[in-house]
Amino acid sequence: MASPETQQLIRVGHSPDPDDAFMFHALANDHVDTGSYKFTHELVDIETLNQRAFEADLELTAISIHAYAFLHDKYALCSCGASMGDGYGPMVVSREECTVDDLKNKIVAVPGKLTSAFLGLRMCLEQDFEYVLVPFDEIIPAVKKGEYQGQKVDVGLIIHEGQLTYANSDLKLVLDLGVWWQELTGGLPLPLGANAIRKDLGEETIREVQRLLYESIDYGLKNREEALEYALQYGRDLDRAKADKFVGMYVNDWTLDFGAKGREAVTKFLAMGYEQGILPELIVPEFVDL
């Protein structure tokens, strides 16, 4: 490894969640020789990372596929590091039984306007709906209470570990966007998040940083118990079994490589957003080759 004085700084932004912690365990804890690069980590919720990416202050950052539509001039998508919902994904939950059609007249607590969950729900309902912006980890309490900071909340759009814990709060599942997308597309996974790398770093740095990211993910998958132990500290309300399940949902073969099917899913997701008039332009995603 090069001396710290000569290493190029790579600032990494990712969510404080078990899946991201699992993915970055090897890089964060010196299990990968980073050579001429020095990685520092900033743990921030995904919507904040989406907003920060407009300033391009981080060399490598987790972003929502939705946000990428507005950031493609600054960032390319790494082929590894994806979060894909393979028959599962963000969910809408409610205190009372209701149908998907009912959601069109409900006030929805959402985790961010640039999240893929928000874009997916708009495409599913094929119309706009009333919503309240709520931090992702406060949505379940807001739905249970029926309000957030004085604003009425009928249902919630949940991401991350809430997908495994909502029933603990006596909430009912109305819609699983991963199931909706899979049925709509004939089996494609729902593209939710990716690691994006700044285009101005240059081809060599982009290639090397992606290689190190791949090695970190691969290390975690090959040393699962060790990486899971590290990830548990970010497992809000998850016991070990649920944390293991959650990590398995979002760190897997899709995470090592989008592959042809994953790339098709990203392309289709962005194209549908444009076709429905939600995204302002048709985006053809740019991936860094492994």
How would you describe what is shown here?
The chain has 290 residues and is of the alpha/beta class. It folds into two domains: 8-84 and 191-288, D-Maltodextrin-Binding Protein, domain 2 (3-Layer(aba) Sandwich); 91-185, Periplasmic binding protein-like II (D-Maltodextrin-Binding Protein, domain 2), CATH 3.40.190.10. It has helices spanning 18-28, 46-52, 65-68, 116-125, 139-145, 162-165, 177-185, 203-222, 224-231, 240-250, 253-256, 259-275; strands spanning 8-14, 37-43, 60-64, 75-78, 83-85, 91-94, 108-110, 131-133, 147-148, 151-152, 155-158, 172-176, 190-198, 287-288. The longest helix has 20 residues, at 203-222.
How much of the sequence is in beta strands? 15-25%
Low-confidence stretches: none
User: What general outline do the C-alpha atoms trace?
Assistant: globular
Helical proportion, percent range: 25-40%
Order of H and E elements? EHEHEHEEEEHEHEEEHEHEHHHHHE
The CATH homologous superfamily of the largest domain is named: Periplasmic binding protein-like II
Q: Biggest sheet, open or closed, and with what strands and sense? A: 7 strands, mixed
CATH domain topology of the largest domain: D-Maltodextrin-Binding Protein, domain 2
Provide the structure class: alpha/beta
Q: What's the CATH class of the largest domain, please?
A: Alpha Beta
End-to-end C-alpha gap: 22 Å
